[in-house]
Amino acid sequence: MNDTNINTHFVLVVIAIIISCLGGFWTIPLALAALVFSLRASDLVYQNRMEEAKNMAWWAALFGWLTIGFALIPIILIVIFSGTILALLGAAIAAG
Predict the structure, then answer these.
(1) Is the overall model pTM greater than 0.90, yes or no?
(2) Which of 26, 33, 37, 46 is the most buried (most CB within 10 A)?
């Protein structure tokens, strides 16, 4: 049976692009790679090459989640260590 309903993870990729633009510009290449894989998977589904489309969709999901993870790491670290960062800055100002 030929399954033409392959999840190309396009919505995940769009969210990854938005988060990479908001959170850390250094993750934009990962987001663009995810976009290329997602669009390639969609193209392969259109060409009825399902095995290759599943492979491209897997890579799109991997790069999408990597982008989201890497873009959110600095935000999470700032939330967790914000008190320490403020204390360090306060000590640096007081010492100067």
Answers:
(1) no
(2) 37
